[in-house]
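Lecture 7 notes: from sequence to structure.

We start with a single chain of 243 residues. Read the sequence below before looking at the structure.
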Amino acid sequence: MNVRHATALLAAALILAGCEKPDPKIAEAAQAAQKEQAAAAEAKNFDAAYAQQKWDMAAAYGEMVTSRYAGTPTAERIRAQYEEAQGKAKAAREQRRVESLWSYMSTPVKLAKGKDGIQLSASIYAKANVETDGGTPRPVQLIFRDHPDWGRSSYLVLQTGDFNCYGGCKLKVTVDGKTKTMAGSRPKTDEAIAMFVEDERALWKLVGGAKALSIEFPVKAGGTRTASFEVGGLKPEKMPGWK
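Now the structure, written as tokens:
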């Protein structure tokens, strides 16, 4: 029964009954029909967003229909799709968040023979600051670099303190819960507090497709420290030479 028919029945009942109260069942049917009609109209927006895989919009429209028009056939019809859209919207937001953690740079550089070249880099900061010198915890950065003259490299950079790795050291690298040992080395330079992860290609392959990376490294202040990274948003196409 649609709204028009229900309303007509209600009016007829009122005329026939005179001063008597209308049948409540007829009034309830009219209200239910009106609610369902409104739900169906609102659900058109949901159906369109869902079909276009616009999960954030579909989740918002679905929330409105299922909460505002709860109990209607339309609300029940879209419920499963609404829950699916909710999950996909959440996953998409998380993917955008982890992608935003990475920074990519394309920097003009002068090459050894005086020619011009382009240095590419992908970098990410540890998700929590790390104490590396006995003082305040500071950011730790992981960088993958592709230089036309120097080749490819991967390294950690500190803001304070120093690595205890000038003669080489062993690093404990954990990717999605699986741990392996990799070689590290501290270049003899004061330009930056940096330490190379020697097998940069192996590290790149480990990071590709992974969600979590942690690197345990020795510091001059004594002992080891661990920097943890959310690497799931890496875009390999930004560093084409690393394929």
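Confidence is low (pLDDT under 50) at residues 14-19. Keep this in mind for problem set 3.
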